[in-house]
Structures are given as C-alpha cells and as structure tokens.
Amino acid sequence: MPRRQHAIRPPLLLLALLASAVACAPRVHPLTGTPVVDRLPDTTLPPGHVRLVFRWEYGDPIFSARGEGVARIAPPDSVRLDFFADGSMGGGYAILVGDRLTTPANDDARRYLPPVPLLWAALGRLQVTGQDTTARLAGDTLRADIGRNPVWRAAFTASSLVSLQRLEGNRLRESIRRDSVVIAYRNFGARRRLTLTVQRRIADPPFDEAIWHQ
Asked: Is the peptide bond before 75 cis (omega within 30 degrees of 0)?
C-alpha cells in the first residue's frame, strides 16, 4: 500500500502545478472593433545607432534583482543588452542579431529574458509573421492576431507597436507592453517579470564590431 500511494504522488503534483500555471494565465477574448484589411504598420527600426540607458528590475517566485543597463541598437536587426546588478553583484549580457539570441557561454541567463519575438517587440519591432492574420480597429488602437499555436496578438497606437502577447487557446501566456519610458515583460505561467525604465536615449556613432562577438 505505501508503494501505491508513492506512485500516484508525482502525477498529482504535476496536475497541481499545471492547474496553478493555468490559473495564473489570464483569459483572453476575441478581437473586437472594425475589421481592417490594410497591411500592419511598418515597425522597421529607424536608421542610426542608438544607446538606451535604463534601470531594470527582475522578479520570480524564488529570485529578484535590480540594477542598471544599456541597450545598444544597430538597425536593421542587431541589439546588445548589458545588465549590471546593484550592490556590485555582477551582471551579464545578451546579443540579439535577427532571430539569434546569445548569452555568455549560451548559459541559463536567457531564461530570465523574454523570447526573441518579445525582445524585439520591447524595442518596437514586430518580428512575427503568419498566414492567418486578423486585424481590427477599436478607437485609436489597432489589434492583430497573427499565426496559430501560438497566436501572437499585436497592438498598435499611432502606428507604433505598444504591446505583443503570446496566446495559447484562450489564455495569455506572455506579454510585452511598452511606451516611451517603461517596457514591461510578464510570463504568467512562470510568474516572471522584467521591467526596464528608460532614463536616457542617446544617438551614437556606429558601434565597434567587437561588441557583437564577445
């Protein structure tokens, strides 16, 4: 009898964890508004090298940290992110070129970051495509559902990308929301959050090629 009870515990624990993850993921509803058949706004990064200086804050159920950071953006498709933790606790970096994300020694640091499509959305660039795209305009906000399994829901205001969400079924799994100052990432199942608060935006000369290969 003790063996039988031990055998059923892992499945019950797994079901409990899955139920908890589903409960954390908000429900989503179908798009509303006037159907739109035009192309989605162009979100190509503007020309010119730019450096963003920001404060960041990360949190999940077992770990939290905060500090300063720098994003060096080189259109059309390259960005380097450097993070420095408060209290001389070290730091790290991530390099995103196109669809390829690398971290030091390709370590587990990437688990603290949004996936590639959401990283690009944090910078205002829509990097998802799909044959099944539905767009609707409600007030001054254009929303579009792109692709299947997952569905990416993009929102635009004044032709600028202001949010991107990853949907599975009728649940919101991950999201990026952005304005001119704050970029907020949420992973609802894992209860992870990362917030960047932009402090300065600086136009720079072309960056040294070495920063893309460290």
From this structure: no
